[in-house]
Design goal:
about 120 residues, alpha/beta, four-stranded mixed sheet, globular
Length: about 120
């Protein structure tokens, strides 16, 4: 089990599994069940999607966001758009020019750090 995890509560686990696996390119889940999906993104770090059918989930106004690095955010943005999702947008109101924001199918926010601009 990973030492660190981010848990995202989702209503449609199948849709979100496909989005994170195929569109964001995280590959096959390390854990895959009917109630949770876990992607091993780095040593000791998992991204977990947890199925929660609570009608009060309102992702668009949630205060939680998580981030990951990407060597080619422009290509990722194009892939998002080609799959029918909104592309990445630059973080507004920030001096940082290496951060972009995206949203999953349920409006959960994720941030993408442009690794090509930082050399890391």
């Amino acid at each position: 089990m990973a030492v660190f995890s981010v848990v995202i509560k989702v209503n449609d686990l199948d849709l979100c599994r496909t989005f994170y696996r195929d569109v964001l390119g995280f590959g096959d889940p390390a854990v895959d069940s009917s109630f949770a999906v876990g992607f091993a993104l780095a040593d000791n770090f998992h991204l977990v999607l947890e199925k929660v059918s609570a009608p009060f989930l309102e992702h668009a106004s949630a205060a939680t966001a998580w981030s990951f690095g990407c060597a080619d955010p422009k290509a990722l943005s194009a892939r998002l758009e080609s799959c029918g999702y909104a592309g990445l947008t630059p973080m507004r109101g920030s001096r940082r020019t290496d951060l972009y924001m995206g949203r999953d199918p349920e409006n959960n926010v994720f941030l993408v750090k442009d690794l090509s601009r930082t050399g890391k």
